[in-house]
């Protein structure tokens, strides 16, 4: 049939046949069904994503993250136990080992002498107290960081270096407050070097508890007066000076708090920042693992080399910025084992270190510190991140 024309010459469309109308109707139904199926799929994915999203402030998450952190700390401390023993002897200026400090050969010589005197157990002296302390310390530190981070960084827009630094610092202070007495016990056990003075854990605790400054040191701190006035002042000071008790388990606590802010803060900040760099799209194919059900799409887990690199960088930076305060803390912690036994302040301890060795005295054992801290922090973060995966968080 010839085509029909309008008056202006335009061709009129041919009327659709019944078969064509049925086909169009069928295509419309198919397209609609496809759209519905696509919408349902998106809804299911959103539902699964919400289901997989973990509530980091739930008690279950707190317990599991604490266990993962405690295991991470124990594994890391065991690997570097011998280095830690020698570093404490150097930092605290042990008379028997002071001659070895300041050189790499001295480290080897000190470890050889300890091994000759006490065997392998000597290199791990105080390690039982270390594990008793490090499990709650690392557990509290990691779980506290997760909690402070969840509060201070509630969304990606709040992910700033300052908030990361504060979260890590507060986590470190929280953990050290609850576990510091165990740190005192560990250091004192590690400081013991006499073969005939191998004190037990209970013996060290009893010794620390009953330590008190001798009366002569109290008299020396009184104002420069004479006669009855000086004696009365000395008696007054003696009455108010703690002579024994739990206060002795917090020797060196003030420099610990001061040092923990930069140490823990820079540790977590550096780890997370380096982790972000390693997750850049250009590096991600070589540094990240396939997404697990509990992973965030924007923050996949790092593979083993990348995770160890981020942890080592965290250890390097945090150790560098906080080491002088660590030296002061060690000297204050062993104050009852050397000298007059009087509890020194941070200022007095720093003055003694300066008088003995000058500026370099605040960095005694730093080389050992680097050898110890790099594998320790790297392994700690690695075990923690993998431990969270093993525990389903």
Account of the protein in words:
There is one protein chain. By secondary structure, the protein is mainly alpha-helical. 69% of the residues lie in helices and 0% in strands. The chain is built from 15 helices and no strands. Helix 2 packs across helix 6 (127-152). It starts with 17 loop residues before the first helix and ends with a helix. The model is unreliable at 41-51, 215-223 and 236-242 (pLDDT under 50).
What brief labels describe this structure?
single chain; mainly alpha; 393 residues
Q: Helical proportion?
A: 55-70%
Give the overall silhouette: elongated
Structural class: mainly alpha
What's the helix-strand series? Answer: HHHHHHHHHHHHHHH
Q: Beta-strand percentage?
A: under 5%
The chain-level mean pLDDT equals 78
What is the straight-line distance between the termini? 74 Å
Total strands: 0
Instruction: Supply Rg.
Output: 32 Å
Briefly say what this structure is:
This protein has 15 helices and no strands. The protein has helices at 18-52, 59-79, 81-91, 104-118, 120-123, 127-152, 161-191, 201-210, 215-220, 227-240, 253-278, 284-287, 304-333, 346-357, 366-390.
């Amino acid at each position: 049939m010839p085509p029909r024309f309008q008056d202006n010459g335009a061709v009129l469309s041919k009327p659709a046949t019944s078969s064509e109308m049925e086909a169009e109707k069928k295509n419309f139904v198919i397209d609609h069904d496809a759209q519905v199926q696509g919408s349902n799929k998106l809804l299911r994915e959103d539902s699964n994503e919400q289901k997989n999203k973990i509530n980091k402030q739930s008690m279950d998450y707190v317990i599991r993250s604490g266990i993962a952190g405690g295991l991470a700390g124990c594994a890391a401390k065991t690997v570097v136990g011998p280095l830690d023993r020698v570093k404490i002897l150097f930092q605290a200026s042990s008379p028997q080992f002071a001659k070895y400090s300041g050189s790499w050969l001295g480290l080897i010589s000190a470890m050889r002498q300890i091994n000759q005197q006490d065997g392998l157990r000597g290199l791990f002296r105080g390690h039982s107290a270390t594990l008793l302390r490090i499990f709650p310390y690392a557990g509290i530190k990691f779980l506290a960081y997760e909690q402070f981070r969840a509060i201070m960084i509630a969304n990606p827009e709040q992910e700033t270096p300052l908030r990361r630094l504060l979260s890590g610092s507060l986590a470190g202070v929280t953990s050290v407050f609850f576990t510091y007495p165990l740190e005192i016990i560990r250091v004192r056990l590690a400081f013991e070097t006499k073969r005939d003075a191998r004190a037990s854990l209970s013996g060290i605790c009893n010794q620390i508890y009953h330590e008190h400054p001798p009366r002569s040191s109290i008299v020396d701190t009184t104002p420069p007066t004479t006669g009855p006035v000086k004696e009365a002042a000395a008696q007054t000071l003696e009455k108010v000076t703690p002579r024994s008790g739990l206060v002795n388990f917090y020797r060196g606590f003030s420099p610990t708090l001061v040092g923990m802010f930069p140490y823990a803060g820079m540790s977590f900040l550096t780890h997370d920042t380096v982790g972000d760099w390693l997750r850049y799209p250009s590096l991600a194919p070589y540094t990240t693992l396939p997404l697990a059900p509990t992973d965030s799409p924007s923050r996949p887990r790092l593979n083993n080399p990348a995770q160890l690199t981020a942890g080592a960088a965290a250890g390097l930076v945090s150790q560098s910025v906080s080491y002088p305060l660590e030296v002061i803390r060690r000297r204050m912690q062993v104050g009852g084992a050397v000298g007059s036994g009087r509890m020194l302040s941070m200022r007095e301890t720093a003055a003694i270190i300066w008088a003995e060795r000058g500026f370099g005295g605040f960095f005694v054992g730093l080389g050992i510190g680097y050898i110890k801290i790099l594998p320790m922090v790297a392994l700690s973060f690695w075990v923690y991140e993998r431990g969270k995966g093993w525990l389903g968080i």
